[in-house]
Structures are given as C-alpha cells and as structure tokens.
Amino acid sequence: MASRSTRLRRTPHKQQPEPQARAKWTASLTKILADVMVDQVHKGNRQKSSFSKKGWKYICEDFYKQAGLKWDKDQLKNRFAVLRKQYVITKSLLDESNFRWDEATGAILGTEEAWNKHIMEHPDAETVRSTGCPIYKQLCTIFLEEGTNGKHNGAAEHEKGTPDSTSYQPPLNTIKAEERSESEEMAKMDGEQDRFQSATSSKDGVRKRGRMGVDNAIANAVLEMAAASKLRAVAIKQCSERFSIADCVRTLDQMEGVDERVNFGALDLFNNRTARETFLSLKADKRLTWLQGKCSILCDP
C-alpha cells in the first residue's frame, strides 16, 4: 500500500516538454519559406493581407518537410511580416530611376552617391544595401496585387519594376525629348553647313571658320542635352520621393496602438499613392482612426 502511494506521488513529476526554440533564420531558410508561400498563392490560399487558415497549415507542413524544422505558425507569421517590410523597402528603392535589381545576384545596383542620399532620408534601406534582395521575385508574387492569387504576369512585373541587369531602358518621354533635342541640333548643324557651303570655297580661312562653327554647334548641343538630362533626373527624383512608401512605413512604425491587423492592412494601402498622400497629410492624431476605418473595409468579407 505504501509502495502504491509512493508511485502516485511520483506521477505528477513527468518531464514537461521544452518550450519552442527561437527561430534563427538564414538566407536559405528564408528562401524555402518564400517558395512555399508562392506555392500557396498559386493554389489560391491567400486572403487579402495574409493567408487562409488552410494556407498557413500547408505552409507549416511544407516548410517542415523541406527545412526539417517544426516551427509553429506564429514563428512563420513573424517572418512573413519581416518579408513584407523587406518587399516595401525594396520596391520603394526600385521605384526610383537611380536603382535597379540584378536578378542573377539579387543585388540592388546604384551609385554610391544615390545610396548615401537615399539612406540619409530612408535609414531602413541600409539593410538591403549590403544584402540585396535575392527573393524579390518571390516577394512580388506574395505581396503584389494581393487578391489575384498570383495570376499576374511575374515576368512583366520584373521588366516593368526591376530592369534587366544588362540593359536599362530610360523612360519613353526621356527618349522622345532627347530625339527632339537631337533633331533640333541636327537642323542647326545643317544650317551652319549650308551657310558654309554658300561662302567662297576657295578660301581656306572661310572653310576653317565654317568647321569651327559646326564644332561649336555640336559642343553647345551636348551641353544643352546634359543640362536637360540633369533637370529630368531631378524632376523624376522629386516626384518619386513625395509621399513615398518608405516615408509611410517609417511614420507607421512610430505610431502607438497599431495592432497587427491594422499594420498589415496599412502596408497594403501604401501601394496606392492617393492613400499614401492622404495618410501623410493627416494630422498625427487622426491617422490611426483613418487607418482603422480603411482596414475594416478591406477586411470585411
């Protein structure tokens, strides 16, 4: 009897399961998760700003099969939020004409001057300056045009938002402006040549002055084109920097009382320039109320 009582007293001292270890993410594990999420997007398991319950179930199972790590849904959702912010930062960079994405290496290419100026205004971009964004193509599928279940043209999006690493095509209006400038300068040169040919061709001094006039016209044309190109670059940069996604994200991070649902919904809204302008134009004490109203509309079934 005493022995039985001893066994009963010992029963509650079963070894408790150890708490789940903190997830330590590497580049390869992040890529596995991104690929698994892309697969669920194509299978139609994304719902607005996140995945459905069934989608998260399959994501956890497939990640375990491929990575061998049985991390729970909360750990994967935390990484999902990090990837969303990485996508927003990278997309805001590539929206500027000074940066482009190299698909082969995942690097974001830009001049030292462009990087320094951008990071001074948007410190969050420092993270992608050294590491790049090798999974940007997957992030476009996961976060871009949410609600289409990945049925957008990924290749077209890559060509549109992230120029090919071997060639960069300037905007159409820039090309047309340069063509007009070149045509005007060519006409000016032709006029100089006509006037030169009408002079006495037998005099070497006249011919020399004519050649100098053409050379001066070419030099002036180059200077004018350089000045016009610089003005266009400044105008494009000013337009892209106003009400940028990065500014909205930084302001959102500084706000208090923003829950996860509103945070995710706000990041979706920031893809719309009108929404970004409205958000940044509102007084600080009005922004949270406005976001909650917008997110409640987005999240209604």
TrEMBL record:
Feature: compositional bias, Polar residues: 163-172
Domain of life assignment: Eukaryota
Bias-annotated ranges (Basic and acidic residues): 176-195
Myb/SANT-like domain span: 24-118
Signal peptide bounds: none
Biased composition regions of type Basic residues, renumbered to the chain: 1-13
Residue numbers spanned by region Disordered: 1-21, 151-208
Pfam families: Myb_DNA-bind_3
Protein name per UniProt: Myb/SANT-like domain-containing protein
Source organism of the structure: Escallonia herrerae
